[in-house]
Amino acid sequence: MTFSIVARSADGESWGVAVASKFLAVGSAVPAAVAGVGAIATQADANVAYKGQALAHLDDGATASVALQRLLEDDAGREHRQVGIVDVDGGAASHTGHECLDWAGSVIGDGYAIQGNILTGEEVVEAMEQAWLASPEDAPLARRLLAALTAGDAAGGDSRGRQSAALLVVRDGAGYGGLDDIAVDLRVDDATAPIPELTRLLDLNDLYLTASTEAERVPVTPELEAELEELARAAGADSFRAWVGTENYEMRVADDGSWIDERVLEIIRGTRS
Questions:
Q1: What span, in angstroms and rounded, lies between the C-alpha atoms of 36 and 106?
Q2: Are 181 and 175 in contact (CB under 8 A)?
Q3: Domain ranges of the chain
Q4: Measured distance CA(236)–CA(243) in Å, rounded
Q5: What are the contacts of 134-143 at 24+ separation with CB within 8 A?
Q6: What would the pLDDT profile of 86-105 be if each residue is shown by its tens digit?
Q7: What is the CATH number of domain 2-190?
Q8: DSSP state at residue 79
Q9: Count of other CB atoms within 10 angstroms of residue 173
Q10: Residues 124-140: pLDDT tens digits?
């Protein structure tokens, strides 16, 4: 009833999980990750205790394979479990118990573990692997994970239908204010098209919570400054700076007003589709 990918970025700085299922709020049960430690997806008849246990084993220096072995040897319900793990070095391991419902299986490679159960067929995990390998290694991990998840869904996904999806990515210092490691933590708990909605949320996450690149910065001339002030007042704000604060675009506009992100400029002008 679930398909997922657990992976490490090619630069070795990020770990994450993308998952989808015909199950309410799959993101509350399946994924877990800690920067500099690794990531795990636990599914099928999910043993949610695996999350903390696996990360503890990895933090103690266990490889993905060793951590998985330790989880299974202590679990009498192991044949009902499905789990994928990627460790700090990108080592991967996956397990599909004999009691998992068809189609169920997995594929692993350098830096990734892909698994699913109650799928339309093996083609789901194959499509996910192909999409992962075809995505640029220097692309953000969240985008690579989502591309793989989207490919699995297009190949058939969960044979029972669609309901929820989630995306979790960690990287040292990537959290809000640099105070934790959560780079992306997005969930669609109940929707008819959860993966497209997850894609929309990731676009918003990037807009609100990541900084503009040099290429995205538009210099603010006196003429543009006057235009921005006029547009902000037309939108009901006292000033452009007040509008920026209300809309939460602080990371996309210079503190000294010297530049504005091209996307924010399109938004305030009403030209962004």
A1: 24
A2: yes
A3: 2-190, 214-269
A4: 8
A5: 137/10, 138/10, 138/11, 141/7, 141/8, 141/9, 141/14, 141/15, 141/16, 141/169, 141/171, 141/183, 142/16, 142/167, 142/169, 142/183, 142/184, 142/202, 142/205, 143/202
A6: 999 999 999 999 999 999 99
A7: 3.60.20.10
A8: G
A9: 11
A10: 999 999 999 999 999 99
